[in-house]
Every structure is written in structure tokens, then in C-alpha cells.
UniProtKB/TrEMBL annotation:
Annotated organism of origin: Acer saccharum
UniProt subcellular location: Membrane
GO cellular component term of the entry, any: membrane
Keyword terms: Amino-acid transport, Membrane, Transmembrane, Transmembrane helix, Transport
Transport listed as a keyword: yes
Location of the region described as Disordered in the Swiss-Prot/TrEMBL record: 1-22
Keyword Secreted: no
Transmembrane segments: 28-49, 56-77, 111-130, 182-207, 227-249, 270-289, 309-330, 373-393, 399-418, 430-452
Pfam families on file: Aa_trans (PF01490)
GO biological process: amino acid transport
Name of the protein described by the UniProt record: Amino acid transporter transmembrane domain-containing protein
Amino acid transporter transmembrane domain mapped to chain residues: 25-456
Amino acid sequence: MGEASLLLHGEEEEEEEAESSVNRTGHVWTAVAYIITGVIGSGVLSLAWSVAQLGWIAGPFAIVCFAAITLTSAFLLCDCYRTPDPDHGPGRNRSYSEAVAMSLGKNNARAFGLVIQISLCGITIAYTITSAVSKRAIQKSNCYHNEGHEATCEYSDTYYYLIFGAVQIVLSQAPDFHNIQWLSIIAAIMSFTYSFIGFGLGIAQVIENGYVLGSLTGISTSSGIEKMWLVSQALGDIAFAYPYSLILFEIQDTLKSPPSENQTMKNASMISLIITTIFYLLCGGFGYAAFGEDTPGNLLTGFGFYEPYWLIDLANACIMIHLVGGYQLFGQPLFANAERWISDKYPHNGFINNEFSLKLPLIPAFRLNLLRICFRTFYVVFTTAVSMTFPYFNQVIGVMGAIIFWPLTIYFPVEMYFKQRNVEAWTTKWVMFRIFTIVCFLVTMFALVGSIEGLISAKMS
């Protein structure tokens, strides 16, 4: 679907009309809210487990390295929002796919379109799994409180998946990114809340223990091969915790100017990634310090903590609310890409292009489109079904983190940088970036293979 991005630069009059219809009012703090909503997601819940696999030195070091790479990538991408080509003027690239198409051409745009759609879909699947796990954790927490920590407290999670899917079907009818700013702000507040609760409970557990658990080499295993697979999966989980490049352009397209969008976005990226990395280090570090060898795969649903049960319930409720917004933050770009492609293929089809207004009591009128209703409903049903088939939290996010990280955070940003700055082959800068790209590729492949192995093992067990 990357091919659709080329079609967005058609007639100048149509482009100007589309631009005039968008009211961009965002600033650095709304961008920070969007970024935190998109970056601090279900990945934070696995970081204690990831640090536990890597140990006290490699675990925090890996988190900081992934953060630094993500920020470098973000700075490269921010400058690609405005097209430097004089033939097109300072036109906006309103999505990552448009920027790739304009900078790297049709073939790269097609490859990018496939990768990003798979990535966006994978993240929404992971968010669906996490939301259902959190709903079930609330019920289990109450059961353990009433029946004792040794009680069985096993519940089916099918009902929870269906509830989350139903909510997303309704919210997915919002026409575009600009209509869900309020949801992103609420979701960002929720992410702060459950992150604070997570590392707060970790601190409390460390104080109760009276000492810090864990070791420099991480959790011991029965064999070197098993350790290798767990380390690779941990790297995939950490990579999943930084999916920022996927949504950068859509967020930047909400910003007003002046000041220039790229400068505002760089400031927002710096602020947001510093905040999120601090949270990640606190959650991952204190989680491992509290539980050591028994660190759960999901810090707030793995029941390392049992009490106070009401605080665990609150944290999981915040996760659920956050993931409602997070699903939309990653789902809306996917919807927009697919619907633009379909609309360009069939420009005169009334089912695809006609809109109508619906007014319900007590709420403002809103626009609906038959393609939007059908496609987005089908998509939510699909992601819900896949989530129910593969409900393996750590393994799924490890696979998705590895798939997303290298192409979208490393390869395309570097290639667009080379193109825009006319970096010549075999110069110092060219060699350094090539080494950087190759090293990141090898790490990503290592994480992908290990995460797939973990997913297959979980499905077979």
C-alpha cells in the first residue's frame, strides 16, 4: 500500500484544498502526550522480565541503547516531514509512507507500505492481548484477596477480548487522527499512573525484602541454548517498547507553525523519550530487584504482587484505558493508508467515497462512511481473533518488536538521510551509518529468531 503515497501528490488544487481543510493546532505538549501514549504501551510491562534475562549490567544498558537509537532515528525523520525538493516546494509528508515515496521512490515505497501495515497490525494485536490480560488480572486479584494466594482463580479471557474489540469498533469510526486528541491525553495520563504504580510496588517489595535481588548475569537457566533464546526474546521485548517511528509523521502533522514543525517535533521527541526511558529503567530495574529469579513476564499481571489488591486493580484499569487510546493511535494511520489506497483505486464509487452525517441525542453530529464502517469493523474483528489464537504476551511483543525495529527505525531513516544530504559512498559518515545499520540488523535478527522460537514453544506446550 506504499504505492498510495505517490498518489497523494496529484493535482495541486486538490492538495491545497485538502491542506486548507485540516486545522493544525498542536504544540510541543500535545505532541508529548501523543508520543507518550504511543511509546509507553504494553511493552513497559515486560521490561522487568527483560532486565531479569539480561542482568544488572546488560539490562539497563540495552534499554538506554534502544532509547538512544530511537531518538537518533526520530531526529532524522523529523527533517523529512517537509519535502526539500524544489519541484514540489515545502510540501508536507503527512505520513511515513509519503516521506519514503518522495525521498526513495516507488519500489522502496511499496516495500515500506507492506512493512508498516504489518507493524501497525501487530501492535494493535499486542495491545488487544495486553488489555484482555489486564482485565483478567483484575478478576484474579480480587479472587486471590478473597480466597487466599493459593486459590486456583482461573478464568477464561474470551469475554475480555470481545469487550475490548467492541469498544474499538466504536472508536475506530473517528474519521482521523485529529479527532482523538482528547483520547490520547487521557491515555498518556493513564500510562503515567500505571508506570508509577508498577515501580512503586517494586520499591515497596524491595523495602519489604530488605535487600536487592538479581545478579549481574540475569536469571539462571538449565542450558546455554535456553539462555540464548531468552536473551534474544528480551531484546525483542525492549525493541517493542520503542515503536515511536511508526507514528512520528502523523503526530508531526498535527502541529501548528510557526515555529517550524521539525523543531517542535525534535523538542517533543527529546522530552518524551527521556521521560519514557526513565520510566522504563525504574519499572524494569525495581521489578527485577523485587523478584529476582521469579520476575514475572508481565509486571502487573504476573502476580509477583498480590497486595494491596485495590492498587493492582487500579493499575490494570489504567492499562486498559491506556491501551484503548494506544490501539487508536496505531490503528488510525493503518486505516488512513488502506482507505486512501482503496479510494484512489475507485475514485467514483459512492460506497467508498460518499459520507453522511449522523446525529444522536446529547452528542454532536459526526460523519460516517460505509467503507470506513465495514473496513474498520472487519479489521478490529480480525485483530481480536488473532489475539485470541496467540495470547502469549512476551512472545508476541518480542516478535513484533523485532519486525518493527530495524526497517522502520534504522533502514528507512538512514536511507532518507543519505538521499536528502547527498551523502557520498565510502565517506566517513557513510561508513559509520552503514556499520550502524548492519550491527542493528544483526541484533534485530537475533531477537526475531529467539522470539519466534519462544512463540512456537508456547503454542506447542
